[in-house]
Amino acid sequence: MSRVLGCVIMVDFKLTHEEAFEPIDSLLKKWDIKYIRLIVVDLDGNPRAQLIPEYEMKFALTLGIGFDGSSIAGFRDVNESDLVAHPDPSTFLVPMWETPGIATMFC
């Protein structure tokens, strides 16, 4: 289930990651979304983003997306820098101010 809230489209927050894939996938197709901007907030409150293609969305929702934690100050040292970000399905949105074809999700 999804709803339109002014300038964004949001997915029902009660769904699990696996259950959220179908409604998100239908929104990706409906809005011709080619990329999803996954956002992680660092320890200073600054958003850090990674862009993934739409075909990786199911993988991202079920297993998460790996990223280098040492590239974000204060997260991890180089020796233990491999981290996994798990997108929050309730934060999926297609903001009107975003480049067409790109959606956003927080991890």
UniProtKB/TrEMBL annotation:
Residue ranges constituting the GS beta-grasp domain according to the UniProt record: 31-107
Gene Ontology terms for molecular function: glutamine synthetase activity
Gene Ontology biological-process entries: glutamine biosynthetic process
UniProt-recorded name of the protein: GS beta-grasp domain-containing protein
